Amino acid sequence: MVDVVAVVAVALLVGAVVGTVVPMVPGGALSLAGLLLYWWGSGFTEPGLLALAVLSVLAVTTVLVDLFAGASAARYGGASWTTTVAAVVVSIVLFLITGPIGLLVGLFGTVFALEFVLGGDVRESSRSAAYATVGVLASTAIQVLLTATVFLGFVLSVFVL
Asked: Does the keyword Transmembrane helix feature in the UniProt annotation (predicted)?
């Protein structure tokens, strides 16, 4: 039973790393699920409690970054909540049609257009769009690093040490 659980847990952890670059795939939640599944399958012995706690905190941090970092960057750049939500919807639709470039173009374009309509200032609209786009890219990079750290920490604590 532990072998099947180990395979599924590792698949969840690998899927978490890959999934962080795909919109709507909860990489942090997949990491946490993989950790807890393996811990349960090992009879609550592996990874040890300290490793489990540290890796779980990293996974939960990934969830929080996923939920709030991109929107926070957009808001910090001056975009309204309405603009931020509209940009997320448009960018996800364009991602499904055209891939990652569509996501970025949709995000930048939507924030720029809506902020320009609301405020009429090209400079402020550009600033808001740039902050939102950079925020999403930075959020993705942080999530990849966190989920990769969880995966490597898991491998080290369970299979190496």
From this structure: yes
